[in-house]
Specification:
The protein is of the alpha/beta class. It is built from 17 helices and ten strands. The strands form two sheets. Strands 6-7-8-3-9-10 form a six-stranded mixed β-sheet, with helices on both faces. A four-stranded antiparallel β-sheet has the order 2-1-4-5, with helices on one face. It is elongated, with a radius of gyration of 25 Å.
């Protein structure tokens, strides 16, 4: 199949010729086939949104060509460009970009005006699409009266109202809670699978990679890697591969990237797992603040005092709304696991690493296995899990097994907790810098101790 979209040698500089000029894209070339679900993935500032804006015609590059369906959009005049974008492309924005003075129905109907449709015809079609996406009851409301998830669904309806072949989505779920984000991604997935739309989505969230048939990795204004997958390989949201942990899926998802590259991308996942391991009966808005604050702390963008302030501050003031004691307990949990994983990162052999994990489990879960054979089996199981010899499912099964040669004979609930904690430990510790001065500065020199699991 020939290319449906082709970008050739794109260079883009902002504020060109000025003192603050900044080059965002460097000789970028890209080919997209019709019907692909493209995910452009990379850290903030890597140039992925700039690339999408060039494709959308919102930014004119310094050099290169943008060919869509055999037409170079950079050579079009203004009238040709307007008609082309009206009929060929729909765009979904992170900030929704709904017109605040128009109600929902008028926002959705607006793009049809460029097709010279009468108002009644526009309104009828707009209402049909609103009903299709479950927001028809909101048709009279203005955007400020809607939730973020409702606004984004309306943004999607507006983007597809003219039945474009291409849908461009710039961080479409960046401002949404988990439930709303999943809903939006399911809508985009259905538009791809069931209607054959070509989707090009920009994201810094590694969890969105699972939707793509064509994954493009970017860094420093360049494409560093491309990955193609068949439609059969795409995993549905909420459907986990049988017997795989979060850590297993993470490693599988980022095959071919270095540990350092992956570590930069997964701080949001680390933060979410720490928060989920701690509690909870809190509202989603509170856990969002916790995750974001811990993510910034793990990335060393804020210190402990600011983290405590974010967690302790009232929810009405933008904080998590925890009381001081609970906030302090959560910080202690974060400190505990980061101390152990930093020790783990410095350990120079598998035996030492497994002992550190055992000490962490003893400290966190307060489990002490006195039977020497079972304790030794546990140590060997952790070594096998860390080295990749066994997977998550087998690890959990052997923790529960009473087999004297391999099993540990733990209660099933305890086995599940240990398996989850080892997975959490592996993810939070992934890519941790081996910097002893940093560890000692944050925590002090860790105490040397033998593992209570091994009774030595």
């Amino acid at each position: 199949m020939s290319s449906f979209i082709e970008l050739k040698n794109i260079n883009l500089t902002y504020n060109k010729g000025k003192d603050n000029a900044f080059q965002s894209l460097f000789d970028v070339s890209l080919n997209v086939k019709k019907g692909e679900f493209v995910v452009i993935f990379g850290p903030s500032g890597c140039g992925k949104s700039s690339l999408l804006n060039v494709l959308a015609g919102l930014e004119k590059p310094d050099s290169g060509a943008v060919v869509v369906d055999n037409q170079n959009i950079l050579e079009m005049n203004e009238e040709e460009a307007v008609y082309f974008h009206c009929t060929k492309m729909g765009m979904i924005f992170q900030a929704y970009n709904l017109i605040s003075t128009l109600n929902v129905l008028d926002n959705v109907a607006l793009p049809q005006m460029l097709n010279n449709k009468r108002k009644k015809e526009r309104d009828v079609k707009a209402m049909e699409y609103l009903e299709r996406f479950g927001v028809s009851k909101q048709w009279k409301k203005i955007p400020t009266e809607l939730s973020g998830g409702q606004q984004q669904r309306i943004g999607i309806v507006r983007a597809i109202i003219n039945d474009p072949q291409i849908i461009l989505a710039d961080e479409p779920i960046g401002n949404l809670d988990t439930e709303s984000a999943n809903n939006v991604m399911e809508i985009l997935g259905n538009l791809h699978r069931k209607e054959g739309k070509t989707i090009i989505l920009v994201s810094h969230n590694p969890e969105n990679i699972i939707w793509g048939t064509h994954i493009i990795y970017m860094k420093d204004g360049k494409i560093t890697k491309e990955e193609l997958r068949s439609a059969e390989e795409i995993k549905e949201v909420g459907e986990e591969k049988s017997g795989e942990s979060d850590f297993d899926r993470m490693k599988d998802r980022f095959k071919g990237l270095s540990e350092e590259q992956i570590a930069l991308m997964i701080n949001p996942l680390k933060a979410r797992m720490i928060v989920e391991s701690f509690l909870f009966s809190y509202e989603k808005s509170q856990t969002d603040v916790m995750e974001k604050s811990i993510e910034m702390y793990l990335a060393k963008k804020i210190g402990e005092d600011q983290l405590l302030s974010n967690l302790d501050k009232d929810a009405e003031e933008g904080g998590a709304g925890l009381n001081y004691q609970v906030a302090r307990k959560l910080i202690n949990e974060v400190e505990k696991i980061t101390q152990y994983v930093e020790m783990f990162a410095k350990a120079d052999d598998l035996n030492k690493k497994s002992l550190i994990v055992l000490d962490y489990l003893s400290d966190k879960l307060e489990i002490n296995i006195k039977d020497e054979e079972r304790a030794l089996n546990l140590a060997n199981l952790i070594k096998s899990k860390l080295s990749g010899q066994i997977g998550y499912s087998q690890f959990k099964s052997l923790l529960d097994s009473s087999d004297p040669e391999k099993g540990v004979g733990l209660d099933r609930r305890i086995a599940r907790k240990i398996a989850k904690e080892v997975d959490l430990f592996s993810i939070v510790g992934y890519g941790m810098k081996k910097n002893e001065d940093y560890v000692n500065q944050r925590h002090g020199s860790p105490k040397s101790k033998s593992s209570p699991f091994l009774n030595s």
